[in-house]
Amino acid sequence: MSDEFEEMEQIPWAALAAASGSRRNRYLGVAALLVLLVVAMGWMVTRDGSATAIPRATPTENPTPATTEMPAAIAPPPTVAIYSEADLMLIDAADEERLAAMQAEWLVRDLLTVDGDPLVEERIDALLPGIERPDTPVYVEWVGAYSVESVEPGRYRVEVAYRTLNGTEEGYVRQPAGAYSVEVAIDVGGSASLVASPESISLPDLAGFAG
């Protein structure tokens, strides 16, 4: 034999065959794995192409929902109304009546008083300009409101009784009691204003004791 033939006889045919079989087995394994993956994907996809729902696990006694719904929004509390300063200073009807009675009594006292006091003169001239007053001294013995009638909201008619001591040449003489009707307006801030000139009215009589 020639040297070339001898070298060919030295080739490890058995090893080559084993290596070739090993590669073939690996190819077959990869192909089988691909087939299994395709089959598994086919089970996961429906005919129309949508994913098939995966079976859920058996619910426990107290299952936890997969999603938590947000609670409905709570409406904010109504806006508190903002009041004006005048509204905050509102006084109730009872306070208005007392204030109207006080102002009416004060007016009647100053109206009937004639003692030369410039403050009284100036006040009456400002409230009742042009009113005539006696030249002789007059002192007011007492005044008292005995009726307060609400004419309309914030406006009151007050009836005030009084008695005066008039100066004469013989001295001061007590006069019969009399009465005035005075209309006074009270605003929300508590300020009072005279609505009209005081009107002289008859004083209610007090009946005698019948016992």
The number of distinct structural domains comes to: 2
Would you list the SSEs in sequence order as H and E?
Answer: HHHHHEEEEEE
For the largest beta-sheet, the strand count, sense and barrel status come to: 6 strands, antiparallel
Mean pLDDT: 76
Report on the architecture of this protein.
With 211 residues, this protein is α+β, with helices and mostly antiparallel strands. Residues 4-8, 50-55 and 79-83 have low confidence and may be disordered. The termini are far apart. It has helices spanning 3-9, 13-44, 85-88, 93-112, 118-127, and strands spanning 138-152, 155-168, 171-174, 178-186, 192-194, 199-201. The chain contains five helices and six strands; from the N terminus they run H-H-H-H-H-E-E-E-E-E-E.
Looking at this protein, list some descriptive labels.
211 residues; six-stranded antiparallel β-sheet; Nuclear Transport Factor 2, Chain: A; alpha+beta; 2 domains; single chain
Summary, kept brief:
The protein has 211 residues and is α+β, with helices and mostly antiparallel strands. Helix content is 35%, strand content 23%. The protein has helices at residues 3-9, 13-44, 85-88, 93-112, 118-127; strands spanning 138-152, 155-168, 171-174, 178-186, 192-194, 199-201.
List the helices and strands and how they pair.
Elements: H1 3-9, H2 13-44, H3 85-88, H4 93-112, H5 118-127, E1 138-152, E2 155-168, E3 171-174, E4 178-186, E5 192-194, E6 199-201
Antiparallel strand pairs: 1-2, 2-3, 2-4, 4-5, 4-6
